[in-house]
Amino acid sequence: MHSRRLAKRSILGSRVCAPSVAGDGALLPGVVQAVKQENNDASTGLRRNVYTVLMQDGSLIEYSEDEIVVCPTPMTTKGPLKSSLKQTSCNGLTLPMETQKGETNTLASEPVEDPRGPDCKRTSRALDPEKDNTRSVSLLEQKRKVVSSSIDVPQARKSEEEVDMDKVTAAMVLTSLSTSPLVRSPPVKVSEGSNGSWKDGGCTSSSHSSSGYWSWSAPSDQSNPSTPSPPLSADSFKPFRAPNGPGQADDVIDEPDGSSLLFDEPIPRKRKNSMKVMFKCLWKNCGKVLSSAAGIQKHIRTVHLGRNCDSECSDGEEDFYYTEIKLNTDSVAEGLNGPTPPAPPPAPAPAPSHPPASEPGRPNGGVKSENKLTTPLSRSAPSALYLVHTDHAYQATVPVTIPSSTSFTPSRSASFSVSWQSPPVTFTGSTASPIRSFGEQRPPVSAVLSSPPRVTGSLRKSRGEGKKCRKVYGMENRDMWCTACRWKKACQRFVD
DNA sequence: CGTGCCGGGCT
DNA sequence: AGCCCGGCACG
Protein backbone atom coordinates (compact mmCIF):
# COMPACT_ATOMS: atom_id res chain seq x y z
CA MET A 1 0.00 0.00 0.00
CA HIS A 2 2.65 2.34 0.86
CA SER A 3 4.74 1.50 -2.01
CA ARG A 4 1.86 2.26 -4.18
CA ARG A 5 1.33 5.55 -2.69
CA LEU A 6 4.84 6.41 -3.15
CA ALA A 7 4.59 5.70 -6.71
CA LYS A 8 1.48 7.68 -6.97
CA ARG A 9 2.98 10.82 -5.67
CA SER A 10 6.21 10.34 -7.33
CA ILE A 11 8.13 12.93 -9.01
CA LEU A 12 6.94 11.67 -12.27
CA GLY A 13 5.85 14.46 -14.38
CA SER A 14 7.92 17.04 -12.69
CA ARG A 15 9.43 19.66 -14.76
CA VAL A 16 13.08 19.81 -14.46
CA CYS A 17 15.94 21.23 -16.25
CA ALA A 18 18.68 19.01 -17.31
CA PRO A 19 21.89 19.56 -19.13
CA SER A 20 21.59 19.21 -22.78
CA VAL A 21 23.08 16.28 -24.49
CA ALA A 22 25.16 18.60 -26.50
CA GLY A 23 27.18 19.07 -23.44
CA ASP A 24 27.23 22.78 -23.80
CA GLY A 25 26.10 23.13 -20.31
CA ALA A 26 22.81 24.51 -21.29
CA LEU A 27 19.91 23.39 -19.27
CA LEU A 28 17.00 22.17 -21.15
CA PRO A 29 13.57 21.73 -19.83
CA GLY A 30 12.11 18.36 -19.54
CA VAL A 31 9.67 16.32 -17.69
CA VAL A 32 10.48 13.45 -15.50
CA GLN A 33 9.09 10.37 -17.02
CA ALA A 34 10.46 7.74 -14.82
CA VAL A 35 12.52 7.25 -11.80
CA LYS A 36 14.51 4.32 -10.85
CA GLN A 37 16.86 3.61 -8.12
CA GLU A 38 20.29 2.45 -8.77
CA ASN A 39 22.40 0.79 -6.28
CA ASN A 40 25.57 2.03 -7.60
CA ASP A 41 27.49 2.22 -4.46
CA ALA A 42 27.80 -1.21 -3.18
CA SER A 43 29.92 -0.37 -0.24
CA THR A 44 27.65 2.09 1.37
CA GLY A 45 24.56 0.68 -0.03
CA LEU A 46 23.78 4.11 -1.17
CA ARG A 47 21.25 4.38 -3.77
CA ARG A 48 20.69 7.15 -6.09
CA ASN A 49 17.77 7.97 -8.20
CA VAL A 50 18.02 8.01 -11.86
CA TYR A 51 15.45 10.03 -13.63
CA THR A 52 14.41 9.43 -17.10
CA VAL A 53 13.64 12.80 -18.46
CA LEU A 54 11.61 13.55 -21.44
CA MET A 55 13.28 16.46 -23.01
CA GLN A 56 11.59 19.15 -24.84
CA ASP A 57 12.77 17.85 -28.10
CA GLY A 58 11.15 14.60 -27.42
CA SER A 59 14.16 12.64 -26.47
CA LEU A 60 14.37 10.57 -23.40
CA ILE A 61 17.48 10.89 -21.41
CA GLU A 62 18.49 9.52 -18.11
CA TYR A 63 19.98 11.72 -15.53
CA SER A 64 21.10 11.16 -12.07
CA GLU A 65 19.42 13.29 -9.58
CA ASP A 66 22.42 15.49 -9.24
CA GLU A 67 22.23 16.48 -12.77
CA ILE A 68 18.81 17.81 -12.95
CA VAL A 69 17.34 20.79 -11.34
CA VAL A 70 13.92 22.02 -10.96
CA CYS A 71 12.75 24.05 -13.77
CA PRO A 72 12.23 27.47 -12.34
CA THR A 73 9.31 28.43 -14.39
CA PRO A 74 6.86 26.51 -16.32
CA MET A 75 7.73 26.34 -19.86
CA THR A 76 4.26 26.84 -20.75
CA THR A 77 1.66 28.70 -19.03
CA LYS A 78 -0.73 28.39 -21.78
CA GLY A 79 -2.14 25.60 -23.65
CA PRO A 80 -2.51 23.32 -20.76
CA LEU A 81 -4.67 21.27 -22.94
CA LYS A 82 -6.69 18.79 -21.20
CA SER A 83 -4.80 19.21 -18.14
CA SER A 84 -6.81 22.23 -17.45
CA LEU A 85 -9.43 20.00 -16.21
CA LYS A 86 -7.15 18.03 -14.16
CA GLN A 87 -7.36 19.32 -10.77
CA THR A 88 -4.87 16.88 -9.64
CA SER A 89 -2.73 19.13 -7.78
CA CYS A 90 -1.09 16.28 -6.15
CA ASN A 91 0.38 15.00 -9.19
CA GLY A 92 0.22 18.38 -10.52
CA LEU A 93 3.58 19.69 -10.87
CA THR A 94 2.62 22.00 -13.51
CA LEU A 95 1.54 25.09 -11.94
CA PRO A 96 0.18 28.28 -13.12
CA MET A 97 2.41 31.23 -12.91
CA GLU A 98 0.40 32.81 -10.27
CA THR A 99 0.99 30.04 -7.92
CA GLN A 100 4.62 30.09 -8.33
CA LYS A 101 5.02 33.70 -7.87
CA GLY A 102 5.91 33.23 -4.34
CA GLU A 103 2.61 33.95 -2.92
CA THR A 104 3.18 33.20 0.62
CA ASN A 105 0.93 30.52 1.54
CA THR A 106 0.68 28.77 4.73
CA LEU A 107 2.87 25.97 3.86
CA ALA A 108 5.57 27.84 2.22
CA SER A 109 6.82 28.98 5.49
CA GLU A 110 6.95 25.57 6.86
CA PRO A 111 10.30 24.12 7.48
CA VAL A 112 11.36 22.29 4.49
CA GLU A 113 12.81 19.50 6.45
CA ASP A 114 9.53 18.69 7.86
CA PRO A 115 8.57 15.64 6.00
CA ARG A 116 5.07 15.99 7.18
CA GLY A 117 4.09 18.80 5.01
CA PRO A 118 0.45 17.96 4.83
CA ASP A 119 0.33 17.44 1.21
CA CYS A 120 3.73 16.67 0.23
CA LYS A 121 4.60 13.91 2.41
CA ARG A 122 4.45 11.36 -0.20
CA THR A 123 5.95 13.48 -2.73
CA SER A 124 8.89 14.01 -0.61
CA ARG A 125 9.24 10.44 0.21
CA ALA A 126 9.10 9.48 -3.32
CA LEU A 127 11.43 12.06 -4.42
CA ASP A 128 13.97 11.98 -1.83
CA PRO A 129 13.81 8.80 -0.01
CA GLU A 130 17.13 8.68 1.56
CA LYS A 131 19.32 11.47 0.70
CA ASP A 132 19.73 15.01 1.45
CA ASN A 133 20.03 16.62 -1.80
CA THR A 134 19.54 20.26 -1.91
CA ARG A 135 18.21 20.23 -5.35
CA SER A 136 15.79 17.64 -4.50
CA VAL A 137 14.76 19.70 -1.64
CA SER A 138 14.17 22.69 -3.71
CA LEU A 139 12.24 20.64 -6.09
CA LEU A 140 10.36 19.42 -3.21
CA GLU A 141 9.64 22.78 -1.91
CA GLN A 142 8.40 23.86 -5.19
CA LYS A 143 6.04 21.07 -5.29
CA ARG A 144 4.91 21.85 -1.90
CA LYS A 145 4.04 25.27 -2.94
CA VAL A 146 2.21 24.05 -5.84
CA VAL A 147 0.11 21.86 -3.85
CA SER A 148 -0.53 24.08 -1.01
CA SER A 149 -1.38 27.05 -3.02
CA SER A 150 -3.85 25.15 -4.99
CA ILE A 151 -5.53 23.62 -2.12
CA ASP A 152 -6.05 25.24 1.09
CA VAL A 153 -4.67 22.77 3.44
CA PRO A 154 -4.98 23.33 7.08
CA GLN A 155 -1.65 23.24 8.63
CA ALA A 156 -1.81 21.64 11.92
CA ARG A 157 -4.35 19.05 12.37
CA LYS A 158 -5.42 15.71 13.51
CA SER A 159 -3.42 12.66 13.62
CA GLU A 160 -1.28 11.71 10.83
CA GLU A 161 -3.60 9.00 9.94
CA GLU A 162 -6.43 11.33 9.47
CA VAL A 163 -4.35 13.63 7.53
CA ASP A 164 -3.50 10.81 5.36
CA MET A 165 -7.04 9.96 4.79
CA ASP A 166 -7.92 13.46 4.02
CA LYS A 167 -5.28 13.61 1.49
CA VAL A 168 -6.43 10.49 0.01
CA THR A 169 -9.86 11.86 -0.12
CA ALA A 170 -8.75 15.06 -1.63
CA ALA A 171 -6.72 13.25 -4.10
CA MET A 172 -9.69 11.20 -4.87
CA VAL A 173 -11.71 14.22 -5.65
CA LEU A 174 -9.10 15.58 -7.79
CA THR A 175 -8.48 12.42 -9.53
CA SER A 176 -12.03 11.79 -10.23
CA LEU A 177 -12.53 15.24 -11.47
CA SER A 178 -9.66 15.08 -13.69
CA THR A 179 -11.01 12.05 -15.36
CA SER A 180 -7.75 11.79 -16.93
CA PRO A 181 -5.62 8.81 -17.26
CA LEU A 182 -2.67 10.97 -17.77
CA VAL A 183 -2.58 11.50 -14.19
CA ARG A 184 -2.14 7.92 -13.65
CA SER A 185 0.57 7.07 -15.96
CA PRO A 186 3.30 9.00 -17.42
CA PRO A 187 2.52 9.88 -20.92
CA VAL A 188 4.36 8.06 -23.50
CA LYS A 189 3.12 10.15 -26.23
CA VAL A 190 5.35 13.04 -26.67
CA SER A 191 4.83 14.30 -30.08
CA GLU A 192 3.35 17.60 -29.15
CA GLY A 193 6.69 18.17 -27.72
CA SER A 194 7.82 21.48 -26.70
CA ASN A 195 4.77 23.44 -26.38
CA GLY A 196 1.90 23.03 -24.14
CA SER A 197 1.91 19.38 -24.23
CA TRP A 198 3.25 18.71 -20.90
CA LYS A 199 -0.02 17.42 -19.99
CA ASP A 200 1.48 15.22 -17.53
CA GLY A 201 1.94 18.06 -15.23
CA GLY A 202 -1.69 18.36 -15.64
CA CYS A 203 -2.37 20.73 -12.92
CA THR A 204 -2.65 24.10 -14.21
CA SER A 205 -5.69 23.78 -12.23
CA SER A 206 -5.82 26.61 -9.90
CA SER A 207 -5.99 29.19 -12.54
CA HIS A 208 -9.22 27.67 -13.52
CA SER A 209 -10.48 26.76 -10.25
CA SER A 210 -10.68 30.40 -9.55
CA SER A 211 -14.15 30.23 -10.76
CA GLY A 212 -14.33 26.87 -9.32
CA TYR A 213 -16.41 26.26 -6.39
CA TRP A 214 -15.02 23.44 -4.53
CA SER A 215 -17.00 22.21 -1.80
CA TRP A 216 -14.33 20.70 0.21
CA SER A 217 -16.72 20.21 2.91
CA ALA A 218 -16.90 16.72 1.75
CA PRO A 219 -18.03 14.08 4.10
CA SER A 220 -16.91 15.53 7.29
CA ASP A 221 -18.25 18.94 6.79
CA GLN A 222 -21.65 18.76 5.40
CA SER A 223 -22.24 22.35 5.97
CA ASN A 224 -25.55 22.45 4.37
CA PRO A 225 -27.89 20.74 6.66
CA SER A 226 -30.89 21.31 4.59
CA THR A 227 -29.39 19.47 1.80
CA PRO A 228 -31.08 16.25 1.21
CA SER A 229 -28.69 15.32 -1.41
CA PRO A 230 -26.31 12.63 -0.60
CA PRO A 231 -23.25 13.80 1.05
CA LEU A 232 -20.07 13.58 -0.64
CA SER A 233 -18.85 10.25 0.06
CA ALA A 234 -15.47 9.13 -0.61
CA ASP A 235 -17.06 6.96 -3.09
CA SER A 236 -18.53 9.70 -5.00
CA PHE A 237 -15.16 10.79 -5.93
CA LYS A 238 -14.22 7.68 -7.53
CA PRO A 239 -17.00 7.36 -9.89
CA PHE A 240 -15.47 9.13 -12.65
CA ARG A 241 -12.71 6.76 -12.76
CA ALA A 242 -9.45 5.73 -11.55
CA PRO A 243 -9.56 2.45 -13.17
CA ASN A 244 -6.09 1.35 -13.57
CA GLY A 245 -3.13 2.65 -11.93
CA PRO A 246 -2.21 4.45 -8.87
CA GLY A 247 -5.67 4.89 -7.69
CA GLN A 248 -6.00 1.38 -6.62
CA ALA A 249 -4.51 1.41 -3.26
CA ASP A 250 -6.57 4.27 -2.19
CA ASP A 251 -9.68 2.85 -3.52
CA VAL A 252 -9.19 -0.07 -1.41
CA ILE A 253 -8.63 2.06 1.53
CA ASP A 254 -11.77 3.95 1.16
CA GLU A 255 -13.95 1.14 0.39
CA PRO A 256 -15.00 0.12 3.82
CA ASP A 257 -16.44 3.32 4.95
CA GLY A 258 -17.18 4.66 1.60
CA SER A 259 -20.11 2.44 1.20
CA SER A 260 -21.62 3.54 4.37
CA LEU A 261 -21.48 7.07 3.31
CA LEU A 262 -22.79 6.29 0.00
CA PHE A 263 -26.35 6.32 0.95
CA ASP A 264 -26.26 8.68 3.68
CA GLU A 265 -29.50 10.17 2.83
CA PRO A 266 -32.51 10.84 4.89
CA ILE A 267 -34.07 7.67 3.89
CA PRO A 268 -33.24 4.51 5.62
CA ARG A 269 -31.85 1.90 3.46
CA LYS A 270 -31.74 -1.53 4.72
CA ARG A 271 -30.59 -3.22 1.70
CA LYS A 272 -27.04 -4.08 1.41
CA ASN A 273 -25.01 -2.16 -0.91
CA SER A 274 -24.67 -4.48 -3.74
CA MET A 275 -23.65 -2.25 -6.46
CA LYS A 276 -22.25 -3.01 -9.76
CA VAL A 277 -20.33 -0.44 -11.59
CA MET A 278 -20.75 -0.04 -15.22
CA PHE A 279 -19.36 2.38 -17.64
CA LYS A 280 -21.61 4.00 -20.08
CA CYS A 281 -20.59 5.61 -23.26
CA LEU A 282 -22.00 9.04 -23.48
CA TRP A 283 -21.42 9.47 -27.08
CA LYS A 284 -24.51 10.52 -28.83
CA ASN A 285 -26.65 7.68 -29.84
CA CYS A 286 -24.29 5.18 -28.48
CA GLY A 287 -24.92 4.51 -24.90
CA LYS A 288 -22.88 1.45 -24.86
CA VAL A 289 -22.42 0.08 -21.45
CA LEU A 290 -19.44 -1.88 -20.50
CA SER A 291 -18.30 -3.35 -17.34
CA SER A 292 -14.84 -2.09 -17.31
CA ALA A 293 -13.34 1.28 -17.61
CA ALA A 294 -10.70 -0.03 -19.83
CA GLY A 295 -13.30 -1.50 -22.03
CA ILE A 296 -15.27 1.62 -22.37
CA GLN A 297 -12.19 3.61 -22.98
CA LYS A 298 -11.17 1.31 -25.65
CA HIS A 299 -14.57 1.41 -27.12
CA ILE A 300 -14.60 5.15 -27.23
CA ARG A 301 -11.13 5.36 -28.47
CA THR A 302 -11.63 3.04 -31.29
CA VAL A 303 -15.21 3.52 -32.20
CA HIS A 304 -15.74 7.17 -31.56
CA LEU A 305 -12.38 8.73 -31.60
CA GLY A 306 -11.17 6.60 -34.37
CA ARG A 307 -7.93 5.80 -32.78
CA ASN A 308 -6.44 2.51 -33.18
CA CYS A 309 -3.60 2.61 -30.88
CA ASP A 310 -3.96 1.10 -27.54
CA SER A 311 -4.39 2.85 -24.34
CA GLU A 312 -0.86 3.98 -24.34
CA CYS A 313 -1.35 6.59 -26.88
CA SER A 314 -4.51 7.73 -25.41
CA ASP A 315 -4.54 11.27 -24.34
CA GLY A 316 -7.34 10.72 -22.01
CA GLU A 317 -9.98 12.17 -24.15
CA GLU A 318 -12.07 9.09 -23.86
CA ASP A 319 -12.62 9.90 -20.33
CA PHE A 320 -14.91 12.64 -21.19
CA TYR A 321 -17.17 10.48 -23.13
CA TYR A 322 -18.18 7.97 -20.68
CA THR A 323 -19.58 7.94 -17.29
CA GLU A 324 -19.82 5.49 -14.60
CA ILE A 325 -23.11 4.20 -13.54
CA LYS A 326 -23.98 2.12 -10.67
CA LEU A 327 -26.33 -0.73 -10.77
CA ASN A 328 -28.05 -1.79 -7.74
CA THR A 329 -28.04 -5.40 -8.47
CA ASP A 330 -30.35 -5.91 -5.62
CA SER A 331 -33.02 -3.78 -7.00
CA VAL A 332 -32.48 -5.12 -10.37
CA ALA A 333 -32.80 -8.60 -9.26
CA GLU A 334 -35.80 -7.72 -7.36
CA GLY A 335 -37.26 -5.98 -10.27
CA LEU A 336 -36.66 -8.89 -12.47
CA ASN A 337 -38.04 -11.42 -10.18
CA GLY A 338 -40.56 -9.50 -8.29
CA PRO A 339 -44.21 -9.42 -9.10
CA THR A 340 -44.16 -6.26 -11.02
CA PRO A 341 -40.82 -5.13 -12.14
CA PRO A 342 -40.44 -1.45 -11.93
CA ALA A 343 -40.51 -0.55 -15.52
CA PRO A 344 -37.75 1.73 -16.46
CA PRO A 345 -38.98 5.11 -17.41
CA PRO A 346 -39.20 6.16 -20.98
CA ALA A 347 -35.66 7.21 -20.55
CA PRO A 348 -35.51 10.64 -21.98
CA ALA A 349 -32.65 10.65 -24.32
CA PRO A 350 -29.28 10.41 -22.80
CA ALA A 351 -30.01 11.55 -19.39
CA PRO A 352 -27.02 11.00 -17.29
CA SER A 353 -28.64 13.49 -15.13
CA HIS A 354 -26.84 12.10 -12.29
CA PRO A 355 -23.27 12.25 -11.55
CA PRO A 356 -21.82 9.02 -12.44
CA ALA A 357 -22.66 6.72 -9.77
CA SER A 358 -20.55 6.51 -6.81
CA GLU A 359 -18.60 3.48 -6.40
CA PRO A 360 -15.02 2.88 -6.08
CA GLY A 361 -13.59 3.57 -9.42
CA ARG A 362 -12.02 0.34 -8.83
CA PRO A 363 -9.98 -0.83 -11.62
CA ASN A 364 -12.11 -3.34 -13.20
CA GLY A 365 -9.30 -5.26 -14.42
CA GLY A 366 -8.50 -5.21 -17.99
CA VAL A 367 -10.75 -5.29 -20.91
CA LYS A 368 -13.23 -7.71 -19.77
CA SER A 369 -15.84 -9.30 -21.79
CA GLU A 370 -17.51 -6.42 -23.33
CA ASN A 371 -20.79 -8.08 -23.57
CA LYS A 372 -20.72 -9.91 -20.41
CA LEU A 373 -22.88 -7.37 -18.81
CA THR A 374 -24.69 -6.40 -21.83
CA THR A 375 -27.13 -8.84 -20.57
CA PRO A 376 -30.46 -8.00 -19.13
CA LEU A 377 -29.17 -5.18 -17.11
CA SER A 378 -26.76 -3.33 -19.13
CA ARG A 379 -28.59 -3.75 -22.30
CA SER A 380 -30.96 -1.25 -21.01
CA ALA A 381 -28.82 1.56 -20.02
CA PRO A 382 -31.89 3.51 -19.11
CA SER A 383 -32.82 1.15 -16.46
CA ALA A 384 -29.43 1.44 -15.09
CA LEU A 385 -29.79 5.11 -14.87
CA TYR A 386 -33.10 4.69 -13.41
CA LEU A 387 -31.62 2.77 -10.66
CA VAL A 388 -29.11 5.36 -10.12
CA HIS A 389 -31.82 7.81 -9.71
CA THR A 390 -33.67 5.85 -7.21
CA ASP A 391 -30.84 6.17 -4.93
CA HIS A 392 -31.32 9.82 -4.66
CA ALA A 393 -34.90 10.08 -4.03
CA TYR A 394 -35.34 13.63 -3.09
CA GLN A 395 -32.75 14.95 -5.26
CA ALA A 396 -34.94 16.27 -7.92
CA THR A 397 -32.63 16.05 -10.75
CA VAL A 398 -33.08 18.49 -13.45
CA PRO A 399 -31.52 17.66 -16.69
CA VAL A 400 -29.60 20.55 -17.87
CA THR A 401 -27.66 21.66 -20.76
CA ILE A 402 -24.28 22.98 -20.51
CA PRO A 403 -22.89 25.84 -22.34
CA SER A 404 -20.61 24.16 -24.66
CA SER A 405 -18.85 25.17 -27.70
CA THR A 406 -18.11 22.88 -30.47
CA SER A 407 -14.58 22.20 -29.68
CA PHE A 408 -13.94 18.62 -29.35
CA THR A 409 -11.11 18.91 -27.05
CA PRO A 410 -12.86 18.67 -23.83
CA SER A 411 -11.31 20.79 -21.30
CA ARG A 412 -9.12 23.20 -22.97
CA SER A 413 -9.09 26.22 -20.82
CA ALA A 414 -12.22 25.26 -19.21
CA SER A 415 -13.25 26.61 -15.97
CA PHE A 416 -15.74 24.92 -13.93
CA SER A 417 -17.20 24.74 -10.60
CA VAL A 418 -18.15 21.78 -8.70
CA SER A 419 -20.28 21.38 -5.78
CA TRP A 420 -20.46 18.07 -4.22
CA GLN A 421 -23.51 18.95 -2.40
CA SER A 422 -25.84 18.68 -5.19
CA PRO A 423 -25.20 17.74 -8.69
CA PRO A 424 -24.09 20.98 -10.14
CA VAL A 425 -21.00 20.69 -12.06
CA THR A 426 -20.85 23.54 -14.34
CA PHE A 427 -18.65 24.23 -17.14
CA THR A 428 -17.76 27.31 -18.82
CA GLY A 429 -15.86 27.26 -21.91
CA SER A 430 -15.50 24.37 -24.13
CA THR A 431 -16.49 21.04 -23.01
CA ALA A 432 -16.86 17.76 -24.52
CA SER A 433 -19.49 18.23 -27.06
CA PRO A 434 -20.87 14.81 -27.13
CA ILE A 435 -23.34 15.17 -24.44
CA ARG A 436 -22.75 16.08 -20.94
CA SER A 437 -20.11 13.99 -19.64
CA PHE A 438 -19.53 14.96 -16.15
CA GLY A 439 -22.61 13.77 -14.64
CA GLU A 440 -24.97 16.41 -13.77
CA GLN A 441 -24.36 19.83 -14.96
CA ARG A 442 -26.44 22.81 -14.48
CA PRO A 443 -26.45 26.33 -15.43
CA PRO A 444 -24.09 28.32 -13.34
CA VAL A 445 -26.90 29.92 -11.53
CA SER A 446 -28.02 26.85 -9.87
CA ALA A 447 -24.54 25.98 -9.06
CA VAL A 448 -24.08 29.10 -7.14
CA LEU A 449 -27.26 28.77 -5.30
CA SER A 450 -26.15 25.54 -4.05
CA SER A 451 -29.28 24.93 -2.15
CA PRO A 452 -30.63 21.83 -3.63
CA PRO A 453 -33.91 21.62 -5.32
CA ARG A 454 -36.16 20.93 -2.54
CA VAL A 455 -39.73 21.02 -1.85
CA THR A 456 -40.17 23.68 0.63
CA GLY A 457 -41.86 23.02 3.83
CA SER A 458 -45.31 24.16 2.99
CA LEU A 459 -45.38 22.67 -0.41
CA ARG A 460 -46.26 19.14 -0.23
CA LYS A 461 -44.21 16.96 -2.32
CA SER A 462 -46.26 16.05 -5.25
CA ARG A 463 -47.05 12.47 -4.97
CA GLY A 464 -45.15 10.03 -6.86
CA GLU A 465 -46.71 8.55 -9.84
CA GLY A 466 -44.82 5.41 -10.26
CA LYS A 467 -45.72 2.16 -8.74
CA LYS A 468 -45.18 1.96 -5.14
CA CYS A 469 -44.71 -0.94 -2.90
CA ARG A 470 -48.32 -1.05 -2.07
CA LYS A 471 -49.31 -1.34 -5.63
CA VAL A 472 -46.56 -3.61 -6.56
CA TYR A 473 -46.79 -6.03 -3.78
CA GLY A 474 -50.24 -5.45 -2.60
CA MET A 475 -51.51 -5.22 0.90
CA GLU A 476 -51.11 -8.92 1.41
CA ASN A 477 -47.42 -8.69 0.89
CA ARG A 478 -46.92 -5.82 3.10
CA ASP A 479 -43.81 -7.33 4.45
CA MET A 480 -42.25 -7.01 1.10
CA TRP A 481 -42.72 -3.32 1.07
CA CYS A 482 -39.90 -1.07 1.67
CA THR A 483 -39.81 0.17 5.18
CA ALA A 484 -40.85 3.60 4.20
CA CYS A 485 -43.95 2.32 2.60
CA ARG A 486 -44.70 0.24 5.57
CA TRP A 487 -44.46 3.27 7.67
CA LYS A 488 -46.49 5.28 5.33
CA LYS A 489 -43.57 7.31 4.41
CA ALA A 490 -42.32 8.23 1.03
CA CYS A 491 -41.51 5.11 -0.81
CA GLN A 492 -37.91 4.52 -1.34
CA ARG A 493 -37.95 1.62 -3.54
CA PHE A 494 -39.87 2.98 -6.38
CA VAL A 495 -38.94 6.51 -6.42
CA ASP A 496 -40.23 8.48 -9.25
C1' DC B 1 -62.10 7.35 -3.44
C1' DG B 2 -57.64 5.18 -3.61
C1' DT B 3 -53.22 6.25 -2.73
C1' DG B 4 -48.88 8.53 -1.22
C1' DC B 5 -46.86 10.34 2.46
C1' DC B 6 -46.44 14.21 6.11
C1' DG B 7 -46.59 15.01 10.73
C1' DG B 8 -46.60 13.35 14.88
C1' DG B 9 -47.27 9.91 18.57
C1' DC B 10 -45.79 5.76 20.86
C1' DT B 11 -42.29 2.50 22.35
C1' DA C 1 -34.36 5.27 16.29
C1' DG C 2 -37.84 2.20 14.88
C1' DC C 3 -42.45 1.74 14.23
C1' DC C 4 -47.14 3.03 13.47
C1' DC C 5 -51.08 5.68 11.98
C1' DG C 6 -54.33 9.86 11.49
C1' DG C 7 -55.30 12.60 8.17
C1' DC C 8 -54.41 15.58 4.25
C1' DA C 9 -53.64 16.22 -0.60
C1' DC C 10 -53.32 14.65 -5.10
C1' DG C 11 -55.01 12.35 -9.12
Automatic annotation (TrEMBL):
Q: Which SMART domains match?
A: c-clamp (SM01366)
Which superkingdom heads the taxonomic lineage of this protein's source? Eukaryota
A GO BP annotation: regulation of transcription by RNA polymerase II
According to its record, what are the GO cellular component terms?
Answer: nucleus
Pfam families the record matches:
DUF4772
Identify the keywords attached in UniProt to this record, alphabetized: DNA-binding, Metal-binding, Nucleus, Transcription, Transcription regulation, Zinc, Zinc-finger
Region annotated Disordered, chain positions: 95-164, 181-265, 332-375, 431-462
Low complexity: compositionally biased ranges: 205-220
**Protein name per Swiss-Prot or TrEMBL:** C2H2-type domain-containing protein
Q: Kindly list the organism's lineage.
A: Eukaryota, Metazoa, Chordata, Craniata, Vertebrata
